[in-house]
Write a structure and sequence with these properties.
Elements lengths: L1 H17 L8 E3 L2 E5 L6 H10 L3 E2 L5 H15 L6 E7 L8 E2 L24 E5 L5 E5 L6 E7 H8 L1
Parallel strand pairs: 4-8
Antiparallel strand pairs: 1-2, 2-8, 3-8, 4-5, 4-6, 6-7
Length: about 160
């Protein structure tokens, strides 16, 4: 009985200590950590800042992840906000073929706002736009918006360690 209790205690302590953690200021969702910027920058500069943190602009791969991001943005800004946050998506390589720049993968989950994307050749970068309930929109890459960085929680723990 005593050995069993000690073994269970050890497993609980070892498991919780071994769980990957996010850096201060980053929020965890499943196996990833997210940083919601306070500053604004053009899309390319935003990607460079994320890269400096050993991360990339956020990649939205599911409705669940999208709901998490929208919930956090609504928490930060409230409803009806005109804030916008850059994501990793672009169609700059081939018009109307949206890809994640950090992986090169074609985007399979999309949650465009109504009538989006709408700016054709002029707008090649993807954001979550508050004026459209933080649904996806295409915008001019040179516009200064906030941004969301993403990294795996495992990578965050390695950077911390």
């Amino acid at each position: 009985m005593m050995k069993t209790s000690l073994l269970l205690l050890c497993l609980v302590v070892c498991f919780t200590q071994g769980e990957a953690q996010c850096r201060d200021g980053w929020l965890r969702f499943h196996d990833n950590c997210y940083l919601f910027s306070r500053d604004r920058a053009p899309w390319g500069d935003s990607a460079a800042v994320c890269n400096a943190f050993h991360s990339h602009l956020a990649i939205v791969e599911s409705a669940e992840e999208n709901a998490f991001l929208k919930s956090e943005l609504n928490h930060l800004h409230g409803g009806g906000s005109s804030a916008a946050y850059w994501l990793d998506g672009t169609d700059i390589e081939v018009e109307d073929i949206w890809r994640w720049t950090s992986t090169g993968d074609k985007i399979t989950y999309l949650n465009w706002a109504a009538n989006q994307p709408n700016n054709g050749h002029a707008s090649n970068c993807m954001c979550l736009y508050g004026g459209l309930s933080f649904n996806m929109a295409d915008e001019h890459c040179s516009t200064n918006y906030n941004y969301i960085c993403e990294m795996s929680a495992v990578d965050a723990s390695e950077v911390l360690g």
